[in-house]
Amino acid sequence: MHKASGFTRPFSPDGSASSIPPLPWHFAADQFMIHFRADPDALNSFIRAPLKPNPDRKGEAFLWSPNLNCHPVDVAANAQIRNPARTQYNVCVIAIPALFNEKPVLISAFQWCDKDWLVILSWMIGTCAKQAEFYSTGVHPSFDSVDSAQTSGLGTRFGRTISRNGERLISISFTSEEKVDSEALSAFTGTFPLLSERHIPDLEIPPRGRPALHDITEMILERSHSEMFVRGSATLTFNTAADNEVLGLIAPTSVIAGYRWRTAWTMTGIRVVHDYLKDA
Protein backbone atom coordinates (compact mmCIF):
# COMPACT_ATOMS: atom_id res chain seq x y z
CA MET A 1 0.00 0.00 0.00
CA HIS A 2 1.34 3.42 -0.98
CA LYS A 3 1.54 6.07 1.71
CA ALA A 4 -0.51 9.17 0.87
CA SER A 5 1.41 12.43 1.11
CA GLY A 6 1.24 16.11 0.24
CA PHE A 7 1.13 19.58 1.77
CA THR A 8 -2.67 19.84 1.53
CA ARG A 9 -5.53 17.59 0.50
CA PRO A 10 -6.01 15.84 -1.79
CA PHE A 11 -3.14 13.54 -0.82
CA SER A 12 -1.56 11.21 -3.35
CA PRO A 13 1.36 8.74 -3.40
CA ASP A 14 3.85 11.37 -4.59
CA GLY A 15 2.13 14.43 -3.16
CA SER A 16 1.68 16.09 -6.57
CA ALA A 17 -2.14 16.31 -6.29
CA SER A 18 -2.04 18.79 -3.37
CA SER A 19 -4.10 21.88 -4.05
CA ILE A 20 -1.16 24.10 -3.10
CA PRO A 21 2.59 23.47 -2.69
CA PRO A 22 4.31 24.01 0.66
CA LEU A 23 5.33 27.43 1.92
CA PRO A 24 7.49 29.50 1.81
CA TRP A 25 6.62 31.20 -1.49
CA HIS A 26 8.20 34.12 -3.33
CA PHE A 27 5.80 36.87 -4.47
CA ALA A 28 6.14 39.84 -6.82
CA ALA A 29 3.37 42.24 -7.75
CA ASP A 30 2.23 45.38 -9.46
CA GLN A 31 0.41 46.78 -6.46
CA PHE A 32 -2.64 49.01 -6.86
CA MET A 33 -4.26 50.58 -3.77
CA ILE A 34 -7.12 52.98 -3.02
CA HIS A 35 -7.28 54.86 0.29
CA PHE A 36 -10.91 55.81 0.90
CA ARG A 37 -13.42 57.04 3.46
CA ALA A 38 -16.65 55.31 4.47
CA ASP A 39 -19.13 55.42 7.34
CA PRO A 40 -17.05 55.16 10.55
CA ASP A 41 -19.65 53.21 12.52
CA ALA A 42 -20.05 50.71 9.70
CA LEU A 43 -16.29 50.18 9.43
CA ASN A 44 -15.95 49.81 13.20
CA SER A 45 -18.68 47.15 13.23
CA PHE A 46 -16.19 44.80 11.55
CA ILE A 47 -13.61 45.28 14.34
CA ARG A 48 -14.01 42.80 17.18
CA ALA A 49 -12.11 42.49 20.45
CA PRO A 50 -9.26 42.27 21.23
CA LEU A 51 -8.87 44.73 18.33
CA LYS A 52 -10.11 48.28 18.81
CA PRO A 53 -10.93 51.09 16.36
CA ASN A 54 -7.98 53.32 15.49
CA PRO A 55 -9.04 56.92 16.31
CA ASP A 56 -6.30 58.33 14.08
CA ARG A 57 -7.80 56.55 11.04
CA LYS A 58 -11.49 56.98 11.89
CA GLY A 59 -13.72 56.44 8.86
CA GLU A 60 -10.82 55.28 6.66
CA ALA A 61 -10.26 52.02 4.82
CA PHE A 62 -7.92 50.57 2.21
CA LEU A 63 -8.64 48.52 -0.88
CA TRP A 64 -5.79 46.96 -2.84
CA SER A 65 -5.96 44.81 -5.94
CA PRO A 66 -2.60 43.60 -7.29
CA ASN A 67 -1.73 41.15 -10.00
CA LEU A 68 0.61 38.75 -8.20
CA ASN A 69 3.23 36.34 -9.49
CA CYS A 70 4.29 33.58 -7.11
CA HIS A 71 6.23 30.35 -6.84
CA PRO A 72 7.51 28.07 -4.06
CA VAL A 73 10.97 28.68 -2.68
CA ASP A 74 11.63 24.93 -2.71
CA VAL A 75 13.20 24.02 -6.06
CA ALA A 76 11.63 20.56 -6.22
CA ALA A 77 8.14 21.89 -5.42
CA ASN A 78 8.55 24.64 -8.00
CA ALA A 79 9.60 22.12 -10.65
CA GLN A 80 6.30 20.26 -10.19
CA ILE A 81 4.29 23.31 -11.29
CA ARG A 82 3.73 22.98 -15.03
CA ASN A 83 0.49 24.93 -15.51
CA PRO A 84 1.09 28.73 -15.73
CA ALA A 85 -2.24 29.32 -13.98
CA ARG A 86 -0.63 28.18 -10.76
CA THR A 87 2.05 30.89 -10.90
CA GLN A 88 -0.07 34.04 -10.83
CA TYR A 89 -3.39 35.39 -9.58
CA ASN A 90 -5.42 38.55 -9.04
CA VAL A 91 -6.77 39.54 -5.67
CA CYS A 92 -8.82 42.32 -4.11
CA VAL A 93 -8.60 43.03 -0.38
CA ILE A 94 -10.56 45.46 1.77
CA ALA A 95 -8.86 46.12 5.11
CA ILE A 96 -9.87 48.32 8.01
CA PRO A 97 -7.49 50.22 10.33
CA ALA A 98 -7.54 49.08 13.95
CA LEU A 99 -5.41 48.88 17.08
CA PHE A 100 -4.01 45.61 18.43
CA ASN A 101 -2.13 45.88 21.73
CA GLU A 102 -2.29 49.65 21.07
CA LYS A 103 -0.31 49.24 17.84
CA PRO A 104 -1.79 50.40 14.48
CA VAL A 105 -2.73 47.42 12.30
CA LEU A 106 -4.96 46.52 9.38
CA ILE A 107 -7.51 43.72 9.71
CA SER A 108 -8.57 41.95 6.52
CA ALA A 109 -12.35 42.31 6.27
CA PHE A 110 -13.06 41.04 2.73
CA GLN A 111 -11.11 39.38 -0.04
CA TRP A 112 -11.77 38.08 -3.55
CA CYS A 113 -9.44 36.18 -5.88
CA ASP A 114 -9.52 34.40 -9.23
CA LYS A 115 -7.93 30.98 -8.49
CA ASP A 116 -9.43 28.06 -6.60
CA TRP A 117 -6.11 27.20 -4.94
CA LEU A 118 -5.83 30.75 -3.62
CA VAL A 119 -9.29 30.42 -2.05
CA ILE A 120 -7.99 27.37 -0.19
CA LEU A 121 -4.79 29.09 0.96
CA SER A 122 -6.66 32.21 2.02
CA TRP A 123 -9.00 30.25 4.30
CA MET A 124 -5.99 28.45 5.78
CA ILE A 125 -4.30 31.74 6.70
CA GLY A 126 -7.49 33.64 7.61
CA THR A 127 -8.05 36.04 4.72
CA CYS A 128 -11.09 34.00 3.61
CA ALA A 129 -11.39 34.88 -0.08
CA LYS A 130 -14.32 34.30 -2.38
CA GLN A 131 -13.64 33.42 -6.02
CA ALA A 132 -14.24 36.23 -8.51
CA GLU A 133 -13.39 37.48 -12.01
CA PHE A 134 -10.98 40.35 -12.66
CA TYR A 135 -10.61 42.60 -15.73
CA SER A 136 -8.02 45.34 -16.11
CA THR A 137 -7.08 48.10 -18.54
CA GLY A 138 -4.29 47.12 -20.90
CA VAL A 139 -1.06 49.13 -20.64
CA HIS A 140 2.33 48.74 -22.30
CA PRO A 141 5.52 50.85 -22.51
CA SER A 142 5.48 50.61 -26.33
CA PHE A 143 2.31 52.70 -26.48
CA ASP A 144 4.70 55.65 -26.22
CA SER A 145 5.74 55.06 -29.86
CA VAL A 146 2.19 55.76 -31.06
CA ASP A 147 1.64 58.76 -28.76
CA SER A 148 -0.63 56.90 -26.36
CA ALA A 149 -0.55 57.75 -22.66
CA GLN A 150 -1.30 54.12 -21.71
CA THR A 151 2.36 53.35 -21.09
CA SER A 152 1.94 52.64 -17.33
CA GLY A 153 3.90 55.85 -16.67
CA LEU A 154 2.54 59.18 -15.42
CA GLY A 155 -0.73 60.08 -17.06
CA THR A 156 -1.81 56.48 -17.53
CA ARG A 157 -5.41 55.72 -16.64
CA PHE A 158 -5.91 52.29 -15.07
CA GLY A 159 -9.25 50.60 -14.67
CA ARG A 160 -10.19 47.37 -12.94
CA THR A 161 -13.43 45.55 -12.22
CA ILE A 162 -14.12 42.67 -9.87
CA SER A 163 -17.17 40.48 -10.49
CA ARG A 164 -18.57 37.37 -8.85
CA ASN A 165 -21.01 34.88 -10.34
CA GLY A 166 -21.57 37.24 -13.26
CA GLU A 167 -22.39 40.24 -11.04
CA ARG A 168 -20.03 43.21 -10.85
CA LEU A 169 -18.99 44.01 -7.29
CA ILE A 170 -16.32 46.72 -7.51
CA SER A 171 -15.19 49.23 -10.14
CA ILE A 172 -11.88 51.07 -9.78
CA SER A 173 -10.19 53.78 -11.82
CA PHE A 174 -6.85 55.42 -11.17
CA THR A 175 -4.82 58.02 -13.07
CA SER A 176 -1.14 58.20 -12.12
CA GLU A 177 -0.10 61.82 -11.57
CA GLU A 178 3.10 62.13 -9.53
CA LYS A 179 6.03 60.13 -8.28
CA VAL A 180 6.24 59.89 -4.48
CA ASP A 181 8.45 58.14 -1.96
CA SER A 182 7.47 55.35 0.40
CA GLU A 183 6.68 57.82 3.19
CA ALA A 184 3.57 58.89 1.24
CA LEU A 185 2.10 55.43 1.96
CA SER A 186 3.11 55.23 5.63
CA ALA A 187 -0.53 55.18 6.80
CA PHE A 188 -0.80 51.91 4.87
CA THR A 189 2.65 50.32 5.04
CA GLY A 190 3.11 51.22 8.70
CA THR A 191 0.31 48.85 9.68
CA PHE A 192 1.78 45.63 8.29
CA PRO A 193 1.96 42.65 8.70
CA LEU A 194 -1.73 42.22 7.83
CA LEU A 195 -3.96 40.62 10.46
CA SER A 196 -6.76 38.21 9.57
CA GLU A 197 -9.54 36.50 11.52
CA ARG A 198 -9.53 32.75 10.88
CA HIS A 199 -12.67 30.74 11.63
CA ILE A 200 -13.76 27.16 10.99
CA PRO A 201 -17.32 26.53 12.28
CA ASP A 202 -18.56 23.59 14.34
CA LEU A 203 -19.88 21.04 11.84
CA GLU A 204 -19.99 18.01 14.12
CA ILE A 205 -23.13 16.08 15.04
CA PRO A 206 -23.85 16.34 17.88
CA PRO A 207 -22.46 19.89 18.01
CA ARG A 208 -19.49 20.53 20.25
CA GLY A 209 -20.76 24.04 20.96
CA ARG A 210 -17.64 25.86 19.81
CA PRO A 211 -15.88 26.48 16.48
CA ALA A 212 -13.27 24.01 15.32
CA LEU A 213 -10.85 26.95 14.97
CA HIS A 214 -11.11 30.66 15.73
CA ASP A 215 -8.11 32.96 16.01
CA ILE A 216 -6.34 36.04 14.66
CA THR A 217 -3.32 35.45 12.47
CA GLU A 218 -0.44 37.61 11.32
CA MET A 219 1.36 37.01 8.03
CA ILE A 220 5.11 36.43 8.30
CA LEU A 221 6.83 38.22 5.43
CA GLU A 222 10.56 38.35 4.80
CA ARG A 223 12.82 40.26 2.40
CA SER A 224 10.07 42.76 1.51
CA HIS A 225 11.05 45.25 -1.17
CA SER A 226 9.01 48.05 -2.76
CA GLU A 227 9.82 50.67 -5.41
CA MET A 228 8.45 53.04 -8.08
CA PHE A 229 5.70 54.66 -6.00
CA VAL A 230 3.13 56.76 -7.86
CA ARG A 231 0.15 58.68 -6.51
CA GLY A 232 -2.89 59.93 -8.38
CA SER A 233 -6.62 60.55 -8.49
CA ALA A 234 -8.99 57.62 -8.25
CA THR A 235 -12.61 56.53 -8.17
CA LEU A 236 -14.06 53.57 -6.32
CA THR A 237 -17.59 52.24 -6.68
CA PHE A 238 -19.24 49.33 -4.86
CA ASN A 239 -22.34 47.44 -5.95
CA THR A 240 -24.40 48.07 -2.84
CA ALA A 241 -27.05 45.52 -3.88
CA ALA A 242 -24.69 42.66 -4.78
CA ASP A 243 -25.86 39.20 -3.78
CA ASN A 244 -24.13 37.54 -0.81
CA GLU A 245 -22.13 40.71 -0.06
CA VAL A 246 -22.51 43.66 2.34
CA LEU A 247 -20.64 46.27 0.33
CA GLY A 248 -23.42 48.79 0.88
CA LEU A 249 -22.40 49.09 4.52
CA ILE A 250 -18.90 50.30 3.69
CA ALA A 251 -19.52 52.03 0.37
CA PRO A 252 -16.96 54.82 -0.21
CA THR A 253 -18.11 58.32 0.68
CA SER A 254 -14.92 59.79 -0.80
CA VAL A 255 -11.53 58.75 -2.12
CA ILE A 256 -8.41 60.12 -0.45
CA ALA A 257 -5.93 58.98 -3.11
CA GLY A 258 -4.84 56.12 -5.31
CA TYR A 259 -1.36 54.57 -5.42
CA ARG A 260 0.58 52.19 -7.59
CA TRP A 261 4.00 50.59 -7.00
CA ARG A 262 6.04 47.43 -7.47
CA THR A 263 6.75 45.06 -4.60
CA ALA A 264 8.18 41.65 -3.77
CA TRP A 265 8.50 39.50 -0.66
CA THR A 266 8.81 35.97 0.66
CA MET A 267 5.94 34.58 2.74
CA THR A 268 7.08 31.90 5.17
CA GLY A 269 3.78 31.35 6.98
CA ILE A 270 1.64 32.86 9.71
CA ARG A 271 1.69 33.24 13.46
CA VAL A 272 -1.36 33.17 15.73
CA VAL A 273 -1.49 36.41 17.72
CA HIS A 274 -4.81 35.74 19.47
CA ASP A 275 -6.74 32.50 20.10
CA TYR A 276 -10.44 33.07 20.80
CA LEU A 277 -10.82 29.47 22.02
CA LYS A 278 -7.92 29.42 24.47
CA ASP A 279 -9.99 30.43 27.46
CA ALA A 280 -13.42 29.55 26.07
Would you write up a description of this structure?
The protein has 280 residues and is mainly beta. Helices cover 9% and strands 47% of the residues. It is built from four helices and 13 strands. Strands 1, 2, 3, 4, 5, 6, 7, 8, 9, 10, 11, 12 and 13 form a 13-stranded mixed beta sheet that branches. The chain is globular, with a radius of gyration of 20 Å. The termini are far apart. The mean pLDDT is 95.
Keywords:
280 residues; mainly beta; 13-stranded mixed sheet; 4 helices; globular
Count of helix runs: 4
Rg estimate, integer Å: 20 Å
Query: Structural class, from secondary structure content?
Result: mainly beta
Regions with little confidence, pLDDT below 50 for 5+ residues: none
Strand composition percent: over 45%
Average pLDDT works out at 95
Biggest sheet record: 13 strands, mixed
Can you summarize this structure?
With 280 residues, the protein is mostly beta strands. It has four helices and 13 strands.
Write the SSE topology.
Blueprint: E1 25-37, H1 40-44, E2 52-53, E3 60-64, E4 67-72, H2 75-79, E5 88-100, E6 103-113, H3 116-125, E7 130-131, E8 133-136, E9 157-164, E10 167-179, H4 186-189, E11 195-200, E12 213-238, E13 254-275
Parallel strand pairs: 6-7, 6-11
Antiparallel strand pairs: 1-3, 1-4, 1-13, 2-5, 3-5, 4-5, 5-6, 8-9, 9-10, 10-12, 11-12, 12-13
